Each structure stands twice: as structure tokens, then as C-alpha cells.
What we know:
This protein is an alpha+beta fold. The chain has helices spanning 40-51, 98-117, 127-151, 156-169, 173-184, 251-256, 282-285, and strands at 4-8, 11-17, 24-28, 71-72, 77-78, 81-82, 89-90, 232-235, 245-248, 264-267, 273-277.
Amino acid sequence: DEGRAVAAREGVTLVVPMPRRGSFRLILHVPANTGEPQDPAWYDALLRRRTGVDFHLKDVSWVSLFTLRSGVAERLRSGPVFLLGDAAHLQSPVGGQGLNMGVQDAHNLAWKLAHVHRGWAAPELLDSYEEERLRIARSVVRTTSLATRLLALRLPPLWLARGLVASVILRIPWVQRRFGPLLGLPDHRYQPGIAVSQHRALGPFRPGARVPNLRFPDATSLHDHLHRERQTVFASEPAAGTEDHGVAVPAATWEALGLPATSQVRVRPDRIVAAAHAGLGGAVLGSVHSPGP
């Protein structure tokens, strides 16, 4: 049920099981002069050399050659035009982050467009899309480019050292816990700006980071209470008459989490903490991005 990666001197090979039993997706690092896609026997021989396994490939449904490229657009917005996904950034498939990046781009922008269109926020809110996503895109492209270069090492001393170090380090639980979230990208944190307050972290709530899915005493989870379209404010007494989705949190619940009874937390529709404070007034908490006059 798990994929396998083989970093042979000849190149990297990824074997990924697909939902249909007995079917796999193979990603192979092949010589630059390979040319057009080869027949199954050619790939069988390559897999045998690298893995020592006879795959006996058959029923090959799709073969494609591509050249790794990476880069990030200089801007993600020009007036009414926004760049998302592969139009905004290209990176190596190492780590499988391309799809996650595109989905997060879309989620980040979609709720902001909806809020401005409905008059819930000022148009300046849209400026935060580039502010937040461009920095993340540059960071991910740098990381995946470095990882790709390490995987593609061909010199014998470096190739052997890479294999030995990786086989030891990647087995350490702390390393798995630390780098797993980085690969899936839920662990990024946006800098303070238009859509994220500058307040410090409040317990597990870090402005700019993904909100944790805490359990409440009534057996529900925090994510159960999030609104898909509106910003959600968790407070003992959420302010009425606003465009936000208010969730009343009893003082005992805050205290059970080790937080003051007066705590307030605002969460965006993309599940990013916009603001958190131990005793912030509702008007100030609501000013993270309020509609213009």
C-alpha cells in the first residue's frame, strides 16, 4: 500500500501503487538522450537494473517524457488577473507538492474574492493573495529544487553518502514528524499583513498558521464549527450583527484548553488563524479586514 523510492546511481525510480489492484505508476529518471517513449521491455530492463525486481510490465496505458523545470512568476496578480497553480509556480514532483500548492492557492483566493464581491471586505483584501502565496511558492520551489539535485547525484562518493545518510536519518521519528508536514504543506505560516493580525500566538492558535482541530468537551471538534464561506469567531460572547460566523465557547472550555476565559480566535474560511488574543475587544478583533466605507 506504500510507494517506494529507489535512488540508484543510474537515476531515481519511484513506484507508486494505484487504486486498481496490481496496477502501479512508475516515475523514472532516464538519460537525457532517451528520446521518444520506449516499449515495455526497455522499461522492464531499466527497472531490473535499478531495483533487482522483474516487473513484467504489461497493459501499459500511458507513457510520457518530461523535462524538470522550476520557477516562480514575478507577480501573482496584475489588476483583475490572478495566477494560481502551475501558472504561478513550477517545481519538481519530488515530495508531490504541486497539487497541494495549487489547491491552497485556490482556497486562499476564493474566499477573498467572495468576501469582496459580497461587500464583506474592502478590495484591498485581494492584495493579500500575492503577499501570502508568493513567499510560500518561492520557499517550496527552493526546497524541491535542492531535493531534486540531491536525488540526482551521480558521483560515486556523493551518491553513496546520500544513500547512507538518508537511510539513517529518515528512520528517526522526530525527522518524520518534522518533515512530513512540510511535504504536505499544512505547516506553512503566513506573515502578518492585511488578512493576518500581528498578535502573538495564543496557546495552540498561531496567527497565520493552520488552525488545530482541537476537541471540545461536547465531543465536537473545532473544525466542525468552521463556516465554509464566512470567517469564524470563537469567543465567550461573539459580537452580533456582523458578517462573521460566531461560535460561543463557554469559559470552562477555554480554561480546559489552558487559555483565559476571555479568549477570542478568528479563523478564515481557508482554516488559517487570522487573529487570536486573550482579551481582545470584538471591534478590534473584527478589524483584521473590515469592509471599507
